[in-house]
Amino acid sequence: MQDEIVQAHDVAARRQPGSEPAPAAAAASGSISFAITTVGDGPRILPLLEVLGAARRDGDEVVLFLREDQVETLTSRPPWARVVAMPDASIFRLRAQVPAVCRNEWIVVLEDHSMIDQYSIEAIRRLIRERPDIDMIPFLTKNLTSRRPWDWAIYLFNFAQVWAPLAHPPPFSIVTSAVVRRAALGTTAPFKDGEWELRVIPRLFATGRRASSNDIFIDHIKPLDAIPALTIIFHNARAGASLQRGFGTSAWSVLREGLIAFAPRTGMLMEAAAARAHELPAGTRLRLHALGLTHLIGNIAGLLFGGGRSAYKLD
Predict the structure, then answer these.
(1) Topology of 5-139+175-220 in CATH?
(2) In whole angstroms, what is the distance from residue 140 CA to residue 216 CA?
(3) What end-to-end distance do the CA atoms of the chain give, in Å?
(4) 207 CB neighbour count, 10 Å cutoff
(5) Is the peptide bond between 138 and the residue preceding it cis, with omega within 30 degrees of 0?
């Protein structure tokens, strides 16, 4: 069986912007497309592929979204995993290809460092079978692997409010990994860069057609020391600010987000983690303040100078 590698720009050329998605009935009910994005070296994705190899069922598909220059590093890709390759693509651009490529009724969007286990996958199947009224399942998170001081800080900075188990579903989750009904995406054309993160996920949350479960979570594996942690927060904030401006968000709203990240957000995150404060290393609050300040600086840089290459420095 010959491996299939698709150039994403060729896939996009076969669809017109604004075209409607295929009817849900065109795909088997409950069938899943696992969409995995990575801008790192190919071997980083192998542990996730091992889990999916054991958990996938007939009718499921696994699609890997990579930059073209990374395809050759994925030396042991299983034959059941399709590859969609793009030249010089950011993580935003890779994720934007999902509606143009994935074909099944449900799409599970993951990153190479979003580790999921078979129990979570079975919980996803169970929930979409029991709740035919929903269009999205946001992932909760756990920090099971990356547990050094700065690993904890960047985990909490992003995910303290969705740290499973939760007593109540969160009102909003910033986790870009999610389970979505394909028909709810509204298009079979690629998204604009940043549309998944800044438009689609918030829109699906706003509809209320969602459900979450403490059994459906990812282990966010991100081992980082101080400088890499601060650097990735800066680039993420700068790229995010630039993308928000491109979608028409006012400069004041973007700046206000950075100010919130710098000041009140640290207290909010520590409050969300208070019940499990005994797990956190000393100095966590100070590290969160440092990340918040860096986020504010990144927002200001994005407002003044645009995104530059920041979107291409996130992994």
Answers:
(1) Spore Coat Polysaccharide Biosynthesis Protein SpsA; Chain A (3.90.550)
(2) 6
(3) 31
(4) 11
(5) no
Q: Check residue 22 and give its pLDDT.
A: 42
Conformation bin of residue 208: beta by default, left when phi > 0, alpha when psi is -120 to 50:
left
CB 55 within 8 A of CB 129: no
Predicted pLDDT of residue 171: 78
Tokens of 270: 């520590």
DSSP class of residue 41 equals -
DSSP state of 67: E
Q: Chunk the chain into consecutive blocks of 10 residues (it has 315) and report each block's average pLDDT, rounded to whole numbers.
A: 46 41 61 92 84 94 92 83 93 96 97 94 97 96 96 96 92 86 95 95 93 96 95 97 97 97 94 95 97 98 97 89
Neighbour order of strands in the sheet with 106-111: 5-7, 81-86, 61-67, 32-37, 106-111, 178-181, 136-138
Spatial distance between the Cα atoms of 53 and 136, rounded to a whole number of angstroms: 23
Tokens of 64: 């890997």
CA distance linking residue 221 with residue 82, whole number of Å: 24
Q: Helix 118-130 and helix 46-55: axis angle, to 10°?
A: 50
User: For the whole model, what pTM was predicted?
Assistant: 0.90
- Cα gap 171→58, rounded to integer Å: 34
Q: Which tokens in the block code for residue 113?
A: 């460092």
The residues spanned by each domain of the chain are: 5-139+175-220, 226-312
